[in-house]
């Protein structure tokens, strides 16, 4: 919890996304492309699924924000990731790193270590992935987390301070920290983890909100609050993950900025 968070700033950021329709360049995995693009559209942002090295850097120059997701790695994709992330950093454009299953293989660890050199604005991941970066140990069962977000709060705060990035740890309670300020976001529906690549889509939403926020910490809190509120609303009518996904998109589309007040804990 923190006393430094202005809930009004979160609400204003959510309103700005609706007004500006930020363009988010998504370098993301095959599994997440559909849900990430549709979630951004539902949240009143605009997705651009551009990853090839021949255009990734150029696209980054016109994007409002960039998200880099390592879920389905290959050398050509990694080249595009570096091109976009480097360009975004050099131009002061927010870019978000989603280190999917970073502890699972040496290739993933090496790729994330190299991408960190481009100083990501935000790192969004589950608890096991954050621990893998912070401690160099294995990360659960691949993309699944075997650690609790609240339990690793202090590790996340230390990592954020060391890297100069905002760190978002997704879980039943989301932890959002820049090393000095920490917010906890509660809500959602317990079936949300059963929607494949919803976490990846969350990273894309963080990119959209960071493009419209006064600072990346507020932007990340806004995105997680929007998902938590939409998940809670969607869960009331969904009978399972199959109906939760479209209900979540509808809830995001219909969500009003003031709805976020009830899910941000200070």
Write structural notes for this entry.
By secondary structure, this protein is an alpha/beta fold. The protein is 47% helix and 15% strand. The protein has helices at residues 7-20, 33-42, 56-62, 75-91, 106-116, 127-135, 153-163, 198-210, 216-235, 241-254, and strands at 23-27, 46-48, 65-69, 95-98, 122-126, 166-170, 173-177, 182-186, 264-265. A nine-stranded mixed β-sheet has the order 2-1-3-4-5-6-7-8-9, sandwiched between helices. Strand 6 and strand 7 form a beta hairpin. Helix 2 (33-42) crosses helix 8 (198-210) and helix 9 (216-235) crosses helix 10 (241-254). The radius of gyration is 16 Å and the shape is globular. 55% of the residues are buried.
Distance between the termini: 5 Å
The helix/strand class is: alpha/beta
**What is the beta-strand fraction?**
5-15%
- The residue ranges in which pLDDT falls below 50 over 5 or more consecutive positions are 139-143
Overall shape: globular
The total beta strand count reads 9
Residue share in helix: 40-55%
Q: So what's the oligomer here?
A: single chain
Topology:
Blueprint: H1 7-20, E1 23-27, H2 33-42, E2 46-48, H3 56-62, E3 65-69, H4 75-91, E4 95-98, H5 106-116, E5 122-126, H6 127-135, H7 153-163, E6 166-170, E7 173-177, E8 182-186, H8 198-210, H9 216-235, H10 241-254, E9 264-265
Helix pairs in contact: 1-9, 2-8, 2-10, 3-4, 6-7, 8-9, 9-10
């Amino acid at each position: 919890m923190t006393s430094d968070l202005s809930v009004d700033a979160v609400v204003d950021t959510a309103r700005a996304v609706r007004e500006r329709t930020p363009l988010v360049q998504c370098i993301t995995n095959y599994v997440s492309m559909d849900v990430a693009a549709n979630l951004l559209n539902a949240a009143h942002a605009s997705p651009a699924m551009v990853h090839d090295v021949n255009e990734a850097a150029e696209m980054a120059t016109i994007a409002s924000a960039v998200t880099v997701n390592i879920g389905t790695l290959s050398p050509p994709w990694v080249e595009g990731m570096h091109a976009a992330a480097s360009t975004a950093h050099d131009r002061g454009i927010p870019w978000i790193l989603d280190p999917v299953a970073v502890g699972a293989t040496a290739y993933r660890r090496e790729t994330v270590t190299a991408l960190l050199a481009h100083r990501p604005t935000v790192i969004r991941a589950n608890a096991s992935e954050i621990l893998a970066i912070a401690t160099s140990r294995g990360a659960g069962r691949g993309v699944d987390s075997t650690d609790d977000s609240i339990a690793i709060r202090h590790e996340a705060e230390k990592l954020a301070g060391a890297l100069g990035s905002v760190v978002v740890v997704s879980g039943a309670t989301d932890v959002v920290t820049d090393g000095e300020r920490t917010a906890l976001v509660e809500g959602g529906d317990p079936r949300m983890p059963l929607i494949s690549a919803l976490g990846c889509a969350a990273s894309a939403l963080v990119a959209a909100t960071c493009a419209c926020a006064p600072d990346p910490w507020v932007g990340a809190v806004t995105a997680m609050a929007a998902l938590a509120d939409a998940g809670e609303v969607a869960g009331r009518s969904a009978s399972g993950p199959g109906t939760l996904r479209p209900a979540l998109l509808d809830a995001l589309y219909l969500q009003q900025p003031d709805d976020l007040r009830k899910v941000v804990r200070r």
